[in-house]
Amino acid sequence: MLACVGLYGLMNHSVARRTSEIGIRMALGARANEVLSMVLREAGTLVAIGLVLGSLGAAIAARAVQRLLFGVEPYGLLSLAASALALLAAAFCAAYWPARRAAHVDPMIALRHD
Asked: H/E element holding 79?
């Protein structure tokens, strides 16, 4: 849950920081759904890389602490899948709502943001 909250904060900050860029894109003629899909695609790429690296790290860590686990599988695929799904859902929400809000802002207001 802590990772989901941190991921949400990071993605929300990232999209909020790009408000002026999104305003310029909107002023140059980009539609709201194009901006939304751009942000979701970039967030999806980052999340996919993070999930792959995190899964590899979890597998290495599970192997390292395998002798300390008594009565527990070191490679719990169900728990890994559930945590990956939770992080994926948090990342989607974290990218979707701020991007939707930024895509529907008047371009002149977004350009004056800085």
From this structure: helix 77-103
Q: How far is CA 22 from the centre of its chain?
A: 18
Terminal Cα distance for the chain, rounded: 33
Instruction: Name the token pair of 77.
Output: 């695929």
Number of domains present in the structure of the chain: 1
This prediction has a pTM of 0.74
Torsion of CA 110, 112, 113, 114, to 10 degrees: 130
DSSP annotation of 47? H
Q: Which domain holds residue 56?
A: 2-111
Render pLDDT for 82-95 as a digit per residue (tens, 0 to 9): 888 988 888 888 88
